[in-house]
Amino acid sequence: MDVSTDACAKNAAGVVAICARRCSLYTCQRPRPHPHSFLSARRSFLVYMIPNIPSNSRWASNGVTVAGGHERGNATTQLCNPYGLFIYDDQTMIIADSGNHRIIEWKMDEKNGYIVAGDNSPGNRLDQLNWPTDVIIEKETDSLIICDRGNQRVVRWPCHKATAQGEIIVSDINCFGLTMDDQKYLYVSDTDNHEVRRYKIGDKNGTIIAGGHGKGDGLNQLNYPTYIFVDRQQTLYVSDHDNHRVMKWNKDGNEGIVVAGGRGKGETLTQLSFPNGLFVDTLGTIYVADSWNHRVMRWSDEAKQGTVIVGGNSWGGETNQLHFPTSLSFDRHGNLYIVDQLNYRVQRFSIE
Q1: Which residues make Cβ contacts (< 8 Å) with residue 110, sequence separation at least 6?
Q2: Among 222, 316, 330, 331, which one has the highest count of C-beta atoms within 10 angstroms of its own C-beta?
Q3: Residue 32 banded pLDDT, cuts 50, 70, 90
């Protein structure tokens, strides 16, 4: 698939929206990486920090912009259709700046980010990316692992070299989201084959652990899986994008369990509309970016409906609004960070 020309869709208000299966209508060119671009030497986590968040927690209704927010563009103060987000050490964000075909590091409270992966333009060389949609840090190898979606590959990229290039670790996969567990297994969603595969680093084929039975809405099927999350028990959670639901797959399970949505596309508290970014806390509470409803939802364990924790005030660029949120994460204090894609920014909502 050529992600630079594939069709985009309109939301209910008639405004062009970038849904998770599709691309931007444009691309943003940019200068070469900053000569001192590198990741901090301090890394505390291999996978996501999972904070203890009380079930009755509330967040500020107004967010603060912590990255981007200066319209669409390719300057290091700007983002262009960002997708994935990884936070480490509470001080640094790593953002898949998809429309700029780069990964950008952004320190908290700084005005500029620094390019840490990607070249001048979309391409398939080892020093280039093409529409990256997700990124994590692998502590053991001091590397980024990047879902290089437009090139249908997963690449490992050294953190400490400003002029580095990537190494292909998984090829020929229409990847969208990825994560890693504490046993060093890599999980990758495949939107073409409607499945999630698990890889031991160095394994080229992987093992199907969710979906893999063709496109569909059965409990053993997925329909365009995007972002994924795995907990310490190797339980997998999948944003089943075109089924408008979140699925939970227990380790070695043959089918999944619907844990959020699954009642068709809609905006009621029992529904989701093209879900994307996903996070599960230590209580099993699910947080999901409900992209086409421009909100973030919380679903407690075994709940029949969710609650809106931020957004949900129609689409827009005000501090209490989102416009197609695509990814989310928390710091260790429980503050919520959201990639607000079509406002070209990352918003922080402080826990109260």
Answers
A1: none
A2: 222
A3: very low
CA distances from 48 to 143, 166, 169, 242, 334 (A): 15, 22, 21, 25, 13
333: burial class by Cβ within 10 Å (0-12, 13-18, 19+)?
exposed
Chain-centre distance of CA 49, in angstroms? Answer: 15
User: What's the rounded Cα separation, in Å, for the pair 239 and 251?
Assistant: 17
Q: Which residue, 308, 303, 301, 338, is CA-closest to 322?
A: 338
Candidates 271, 265, 246; CA nearest to 256 is: 246
**Segment 178-200, tens digit of pLDDT:** 999 989 999 999 999 999 999 99
pLDDT given at position 163: 60
- Give the domain ranges of the chain: 30-349
Instruction: Take residue 106 and report the two structure tokens written for it.
Output: 């952004």
CB 260 within 8 A of CB 246: yes
CA torsion, points 128, 130, 131, 134, in degrees to nearest 10?
A: -50
Coil, strand or helix at 96: strand
- Number of helices (H) and strands (E) in the chain: give both, helices first: 0, 26
- Tell the CATH superfamily of the 30-349 domain: TolB, C-terminal domain (2.120.10.30)
Summarize pLDDT for 148-174 with one digit per residue, the tens: 999 999 999 998 665 678 999 999 999
Specify the pTM: 0.87
pLDDT at 3: 37
Three-state SS annotation for 221-246: CECCEEEEEECCCCCEEEEEHHHCEE
Q: Does residue 44 surpass a pLDDT of 50?
A: no
How far apart CA 308 and CA 349 sit, in angstroms, is 13
* Whether 217 contacts 261, CB under 8 Å: no
- In the chain, the largest separation of any two C-alpha atoms, in whole Å, equals 51
- What is the model's pLDDT at position 43? 32
Q: 68 is written with which tokens?
A: 């981007």
